[in-house]
Structure prediction request, 248 residues.
Amino acid sequence: RTVRDQWLDLSVGKADIVEVPPETIRPAQQQHLQLLISRPVDLLALTLAPSGPFSGREMRQAAALALDRAALSNVIFQKQGEVTASLLPQALSGFAFLFPTDRNLDKARALRGGASSTGLVLSAEDTSATMHLAAERLALNLHEAGFMVQVAAPSQPAALTLRRVHLEAASPAAALDEMLAHFGQNGTVTATDPVSLWQTERSVLDNETILPLLWLPRAWAAGERVRDLRLSPDGAPLLADASLEGAK
Prediction:
């Protein structure tokens, strides 16, 4: 069911717990819904195929510098979550701020130079309307840097893919290991100290085939009957200790 239908069900007592996507958290707050909001647990990232148009590192660097993460956060996701260029949330790792997120359109254009980029395809793995809008926003960013990008369905071969990856682990080392596995990176993270974790992540991101964009929370709205509902570290409702007032 659509989010709107779920909220209507909640308002008339036909539902007790409903989903609140990040981009609708602010409207839900304005409607005074009883919200539970998780820490950032979903990474929005753009991946570049390291072949064809992006076989050269300068082209990948140009694409990375063209992305406007702040606009993506402010316009599409209504300032929810956090802008990032890291595979881990800042609150979890403590070093996400070391990965720069600033856009540099002039440098992106200079790096791209006169290289041809005709017919680039960008697709979103998630077919929701919000992800499609996010893909279109990124395509516009890249077009401003001189890349000719068309947003297409996930079934088409794509040089760029917008992905939304869920994080379950609650410790930095396990989280980094999980994220690397999601993006097809080999090896297991064995170190636990922040410096080693930062070096491991930097070595992966320096290749610029994975471009983290935003860390987003998960949120749920609970009805008036719901008592003692909490969220797990990965944003899922914990129902074991919850109860419904008046339930038999």
In short: The two ends are 27 Å apart (CA to CA). The first strand starts at residue 17 and ends at 20. DSSP finds nine helices and eleven strands in the chain.
